[in-house]
Specification:
single chain; 4 strands; 37% helix; Pantoate--beta-alanine Ligase, Chain: A,domain 2; 27% strand; four-stranded antiparallel β-sheet
């Protein structure tokens, strides 16, 4: 009697078991990568919103009042909370600005910052007249 070549039931079950465990590991990796991508996207958006707030404070060159200001900004059909806390700086003529940014969760007022930054602002320079200073002698 000839023996037919092929796989036994045990070999097939072992191969299927290895395949199942491999697929489970792959699915878990894909899930983790998706979560990290979302987290990175939120962090990047928080960075951009905090940077915009800092630029706004620097461009207007107004001396910010101390205290906490909370804004809600909509970006890409999503609401974000931008909280700006201004305190006296460690040196005269400075302000410390702490900014926290985080997405507002749907159907909830709860939020968790995904990006935080701080900076120091100096008092804005006094406005210099546009005319040349008459005390400066430009002639040789």
């Amino acid at each position: 009697m000839k023996r037919e070549s092929g796989f036994t039931l045990i070999e097939v079950l072992v191969a299927l078991g290895i395949l199942v465990f491999s697929m489970m590991a792959l699915m878990q990796s894909i899930s983790t990568a998706g979560k990290h991508t979302l987290m990175l996207d939120e962090h990047t958006q928080g960075y951009l919103l905090a940077s915009n707030k800092l630029v706004e404070l620097q461009v207007y060159q107004e001396w910010p009042k101390t205290g906490t200001q909370t804004d809600t900004v909509e970006v890409n059909q999503r609401n974000w909370r931008v909280q700006t806390k201004v305190t006296e700086g460690p040196y005269p003529g400075t302000r410390r600005v702490d900014i926290e940014v985080g997405p507002l969760r749907e159907n909830s007022k709860a939020w968790e910052p995904v990006y935080q930054t701080l900076t120091m602002l100096g008092a804005p320079p006094e406005v210099v007249p546009s005319q040349a200073n008459p005390q400066v002698n430009h002639e040789g």
